[in-house]
Amino acid sequence: MKTMLPAPPSAEKLPTATFLHGTELHDDYAWMREKGTARVLEYLEAENAYTAASMQGTEALQQKLYDEILSHIKEDDSSVPYRDGAWEYFSRTEKGLQYARYLRRAAGVADAPEETILDVNKLAEGQPFMSVGALGLSPDGNLLAYTTDNTGFRQYTLHVRDLTTGEDLTETAERVGSIAWAADSRTLLYSTEDEQTKRQDRVFRLKLGNNPIQVFHEPDERFNVGVGRTRDRKYILLEAGSHTTSETWFLPADAPDATFRLIAERVDDEEYDVDHRAGYFYIHTNYRADQFRLVRTPVSSTARESWVELLAENPEAPLEDVDLFQSFLVAGYRERGLPVMRVYPLDAEGVPTSPREIAMPDPAYEAGSDVNRDFNTTSFRYSYQSLVRPGSVYLYDVATGESALLKQQEVPGGFNAANYASERLWFAAKDGTQVPVSLVYRKDRFHKDGTSPLYVYAYGSYGYPLPLGFGASRLALLDRGLVMAYAHIRGGGELGDPWHDAGKMMVKRNTFTDFIEATEFLTREGYGDPKRVAIEGGSAGGLLMGAVVNFAIEQGKPQLFRVVTSHVPFVDVMNTMLDASLPLTVAEYEEWGNPNEPEAFEYMSSYSPYDNLQAAEYPSMLVKTSLNDSQVMYWEPAKYVAKLRTLKTNDTPLLLHINMDAGHGGASGRYDYLKEIAFDDAFLLRELGVAE
After folding, report:
1. Do β-strands 533-538 and 454-457 pair in parallel, antiparallel, or remain unpaired?
2. Of 651, 676, 648, whose CA–CA distance to 661 is shortest?
3. Which of 9, 188, 291, 636 has CB atoms 3.0–4.6 Å from 572's, for a disulfide?
4. pLDDT at 3 (0 to 100)
């Protein structure tokens, strides 16, 4: 017998209007912004209760999925140690404990005893949420600077621990972002954020035992600041960056009281980042190179006119990053959307010579630099994983060109990589642009005949390349026959800045049409059943979810998607981007546009999910948020669901789940997080009709 559900919550309508550019924006649910008030909390709890009632009957499936996912995770595990000075550092997780411990032992000493430098489980005692942000060891290894957030709002408190006693010092600071120690191991530089806008805008210098002194303030609301050190530890760097522009200052690490000196003044739409070797700054930049290049300049003369090119721009392969060492450098490129690492020995003058490329074995993968603290090393540590291959750490010998496996993540529970396959496909968008899609499936459950349930995930914003790592939690879906696809749509960074530029601002709609066309391509080619398509995205990817559902309805394709899972979705574009007091808003003008400008207002209004909901049939939807989210405020998804409930004309589930003790990333404890995944998967499988 089918369980009778209670009526879904009905949110009170209190009409408000915003008038701009001759247009009136209506909002019946602006009152949901009143965080902490009785009526808001009552409404959110009612939504959680309704979601729980709607998921009755899936409890056994949720438990089964959780058990399966957990069976593929090695609960007692340690990271690969790395050396820093006289110590080797690593982290460890232990069965039954939600969080990691950070440890160290004396380097080069047989059977050296382990020393716990930070136990996050102890920090989390009595706290519903705990996250460690920055970690910074003093050069002498005696002090640990670390930051913690116990709400999920990503406002971190600075602590300094004396590792000789295990006790925290009295020095502390609020809303701290980045940290950097000076060479004296007594001076700490750190950045802080504005309490309201959450923009990292100030840098302080703290000499232990003294009051902190502000040494920098960034007035431009588009820019955030941060501090760090060059790998050779000779300089402290202060970088200010927007989404499109950057600027860097420096001071000698052994003279922290000195004044920061500018490397090169900011120029709109030009970015650069810096490292140091032997009296030269090596600069990775898009100055006169849309896809970036490597230049260098003497520390004594840093303006752009002194920059000398070392690695030229490759128009077909963006140079994403450079790892610089005493005797070599590693250049990270993207070729056809996939990471490529080339190792260049440096000659006596510090100029790159003929490179070797590090081989990658899979058609779709993720690879990059791992922890490399030793500037004078002759080897390079890198990480590698793919859709079918668990995460691994390798050590590359620069002299021989050989890679040695240090560790591959163990996946218990009967996992066999040979049971799975991945593919890399390209399709032509309607405007002719070639767009990549990566796939993974279980071989014995897949037939390319259009009968498999299909899952499509994407992000497509901020120039962020969609990672293609291994996910143990993914196996529960693959083993049930789902084909899982990752669409590398415009707005991401797979093909460099031009790929990002082709999906932002006044061409943002390309992101949404690419996703729809990717889905249609996959079903047309037989990779999925067009009647059983599930889609998922989070944050800006949640905007994608809201937009593509609306676009499909406008195109007369309301059945294109069967199930939608939307995490912390940025769906209330217009109201958020018109409120400059909110975190991120002003800085985001370079991604979405400034709606105070008429043309941008009209364009953004054309795709804002909240503003384009209409009376129509909608797919099954699970919308998730967190009360303490600082990136996408909880009220955006809450308002979206409330409005959609008044408009949708069919009886498919529309569920809103609010984590009342977390932020943008959901639960902080690893077991709690797995339970959230099991919950999501149970909803997805139920709505796709995938039988156990």
Report:
1. parallel
2. 676
3. 636
4. 60
DSSP state letters, 616-655: B---EEEEEEETT-SSS-THHHHHHHHHHHTTB-S---EE
- Amino acid identity of residue 135, one-letter, is L
Q: What is the model's pTM?
A: 0.96
Q: What does the pLDDT average to over 11-24?
A: 94
Amino acid at 168: D
Q: Is 321 a catalytic residue?
A: no
Measured distance CA(138)–CA(141) in Å, rounded: 5
Pick the catalytic residue: 629, 630, 680, 681? Answer: 629
Give the span between the Cα atoms of 145 and 676, in whole angstroms.
Answer: 31
Structure tokens at 242: 């927007």
Name the nearest CA neighbour of 44 among 661, 670, 675: 661
Contact indicator for 329, 316 with CB cutoff of 8 Å:
no
Tokens of 328: 């070599």
Q: How far apart are CA 299 and CA 296, in angstroms?
A: 9
pLDDT tens for 495-539 read 999 999 999 999 999 999 999 999 999 999 999 999 999 999 999
The rounded distance, in Å, linking the Cα atoms of 505 and 544 is 14
What distance in Å separates the CA atoms of residue 390 and residue 78, rounded to the nearest whole number? 15
- What's the pLDDT score for residue 260? 98
Cα 476 to Cα 62, 260, 456, 480, 561, distances in angstroms: 11, 52, 16, 7, 21
Going from the C-alpha of 14 to that of each of 11, 31, 575, 639, the distances in angstroms are 9, 7, 15, 12
- Comparing CA positions, the residue from 282, 254, 423 lying closest to residue 349 is 282
- Mean pLDDT, the chain, whole residue set: 97
Distance separating alpha carbons of residues 282 and 323, to the nearest angstrom: 10
Q: Which of 671, 648, 651, 672 is nearest to 662 (CA)?
A: 672
Q: How confident is the model at residue 1 (pLDDT cuts 50, 70, 90)?
A: very low
- Residue of 616, 595, 604 whose CA lies nearest to 550: 616
Please indicate whether residue 629 is annotated as part of the active site. Answer: yes
Quickly list DSSP for 301-330: --SGGG-EEEE---TTS-EEEEEE-SSEEE
Q: In what order do the strands lie in the sheet with 157-162?
A: 131-137, 143-149, 157-162, 167-173
Task: Say if CB 578 and CB 18 are below 8 A apart.
Answer: yes
> Known catalytic residue: 664?
yes
545-594 pLDDT, tens digit each: 999 999 999 999 999 999 999 999 999 999 999 999 998 899 999 999 99
> Rounded CA gap, 558 and 560, in Å?
6
How would you list the strands of the sheet with 235-241, edge to edge?
224-229, 235-241, 246-252, 261-264
Cα 654 from Cα 644, distance rounded (Å)? 9
Residue written as token pair 């670390």: 146
3-class DSSP assignment, residue 418: helix
DSSP string over 101-128 = EEEEEETT-TTPPPEEEEEHHHHTTT-S
23-27 and 16-20: which strand pairing? antiparallel
The two tokens of residue 64 are 């089964």
> Do 168 and 175 touch, CB atoms closer than 8 A?
no
Cα angle, residue 328 at apex, residues 322 and 331 outer, rounded to 5°: 25
48 by Cβ neighbours in 10 Å (0-12 / 13-18 / 19+) ranks as: middle
Give the span between the Cα atoms of 525 and 507, in whole angstroms: 28
From 553, 650, 667, select the one nearest 607 (Cα to Cα).
553
Q: Which residues pair with 395 in a beta bridge?
A: 381, 404
CA-based nearest residue to 337, from 486, 500, 488: 488
The owner of tokens 């990566």 is 438
DSSP letter assigned to residue 357: E
Cβ(352)–Cβ(311) below 8 Å:
yes
Cα 162 to its chain centre, rounded Å, is 32
Q: Which of 629, 91, 585, 601 is nearest to 371 (CA)?
A: 91
Q: Which of 539, 620, 630, 668 is catalytic?
A: 539
